[in-house]
Amino acid sequence: MSFDNKVAVVTGGAQGMGREYVRLLAEQGARVVIADINLDVAQKAVDELDFTDQLLAIRTDVGDLESCLACIKAAEERFGGVDFLVNNAGLLSAAAFPSLIDIPVEKYRQIMEVMLNGQLWMARAAVPAMRKRGGGAIVNVSSIGAYQATGVYSLSKLGVNGLTINLSRELAKDNIRVNAVAPGTVATEGMQPLMSVADMAQWGQALGRPTDRVATPDLIAQVGVFLLSDAASYVRGQIIAVDDGQQIRV
Ligand SMILES: NC(=O)c1ccc[n+]([C@@H]2O[C@H](COP(=O)([O-])OP(=O)(O)OC[C@H]3O[C@@H](n4cnc5c(N)ncnc54)[C@H](O)[C@@H]3O)[C@@H](O)[C@H]2O)c1
């Protein structure tokens, strides 16, 4: 897999899984925009990773279409275009709202705006840039939590699955492939305040994973990077579970 002369935008790329996408893509030659609401942490990632010249941090709120458009404009200005989008930004804190009946309306809107609509806003911003390059690829980050009916987090990720299959059809004519990864339990900065790694191991097993392995971010990101690459050129509209067999569907 080579991403030489390619440009990728990774939302929520400052930490966690997003940062792994940034590292792997840059390692394989891409220039990468870290589009994150937390500019300080995004800039820290640029400074700490080995590929500083290939990276650009841009403060982006994916829940705001104008901010998404400004991000893509900055990416085009700095790197000359956009080929790939990883729609990774998310709010793990949304898991604290298990009831769709009781969640405050404003909170519900805020979460859906970032977790579901934000992926559409970024796609709307990035697709015209990809068309100028003759095509591209998008990976949306879902979750196997989509299938667990656990409230707004789950609902937003089911929406991401729906967005993925819809966009995969709509954008085929533009030579843009759209797929999703659905991670299982991943030890990230965002998960730390919610659950210890030991609890994650037990929780995943209780939900059906046949091992006690908790994923590190690279185990997920390498599958997403594969989906972006030409090696996956015949993979379109798929939601790929990366969960060590926790969610087995036949
Ligand atoms: N960690 C897990 O176990 C797990 C499992 C399945 C799916 N996921 C999904 O993977 C993605 C990444 O999760 P993570 O664990 O790395 O999270 P994380 O909390 O470690 O990182 C999320 C990043 O998104 C950024 N962000 C938040 N709101 C934003 C906004 N409005 N605009 C732009 N950036 C924003 C944050 O600043 C942060 O850098 C999320 O979509 C999450 O739902 C995580």
From TrEMBL:
UniProt KW Oxidoreductase keyword: yes
Oxidoreductase listed as a keyword: yes
InterPro entries the record matches: NAD(P)-bd_dom_sf, SDR_fam
SUPFAM superfamilies noted in UniProt: NAD(P)-binding Rossmann-fold domains (SSF51735)
Keywords of this entry: Oxidoreductase
GO function term, MF aspect, one: oxidoreductase activity
Family: Belongs to the short-chain dehydrogenases/reductases (SDR) family.
Entry protein name: SDR family oxidoreductase
Organism: Pseudomonas poae
